[in-house]
Design goal:
Elements lengths: L6 H7 L3 E2 L3 E2 L2 H12 L17 H10 L8 E6 L9 E6 L2 H30 L10 H7 L1 H10 L3 H17 L8 H5 L10 E4 L9 E3 L5 H5 L1 E2 L16 E2 L2 H4 L4 E3 L2 H4 L5 H11 L3 E3 L5 E3 L1
Helix pairs in contact: 2-3, 5-7
Length: 293
Amino acid sequence: ASFSYKTTRIEQCRASSFHGEIIGQPRAVQALEMGLSIPGKGYNIFVSGEPGTGRMTAIRMILKKQALTGTLQDILYVNNFSRPEFPVLILLPAGKGLEFQQALKGLVHRIKEELIKQLEDTTDSSEKKSKIDINPDLLIQKLKKDFQKIRDHFSDKVIINYLKGVQEDLNEYSFIFSGADADTIRSAQFFLRYSVNLLVDRSGTAAAPMIYENHPTFSTLFGSIDDKADNRDDNYPPFLSIHGGSFLEASGGYLILNMVDILKEEGLWDHIKRSIRTGLVIMQNSSGSNQRS
């Protein structure tokens, strides 16, 4: 048998397509878009449906088209010289965190150079072989331009106060390198105290972050703090033991979670709601102590 029909009727029977790959879900798409358009605090979206209905595809595609509404920030920690157990949190515009980290690496290199130079110059001018003492005032004076260069580039008040703390710390503790050789200074763990723990680096990021956490736990979502390892001495500062989680990675953007996975870990859902409500991320280590971010 043969049939005569117009191909236009087949075209009319095709399922409606919304947003390219999202098939036949116009109301769901509209609901997602409306929810994402609400800027108020506390508006979060819960998506339900049968597996295979394109929930994740719809979420990903729509989020990719969302314009960045705020300013992305880098998140980093530095040493608190007076109270090391309470590290200093610094928030900087996207990309500035990496610049500050590199600037501090350069500063540490210069500190080591000046320490070695001071010891070598003093040794050359001394007729006796004895322990050479470091002159902290001379060290700070030699590094004055290096500190000022960083201050000129970063006007953040927290950074200005931090650099003041670095100078005071050098003035107090540089004596420990009296009589040291160059190799000892170059490899000293002491200088870790002047490093930067960059938890979130937004360098080169122009769009809103979209993080899908497929294994939600307390540590993967909120971050963690390492317990002091047996192989770490007192020169290893606490701020370097902090690790960020998905909540920090998604700041300024979107965090996608599977509710089924969340409910598998006792207390996790309540912790998530508390963080959303308060805007605080509380990290835990294995001993149960907390660190707020």
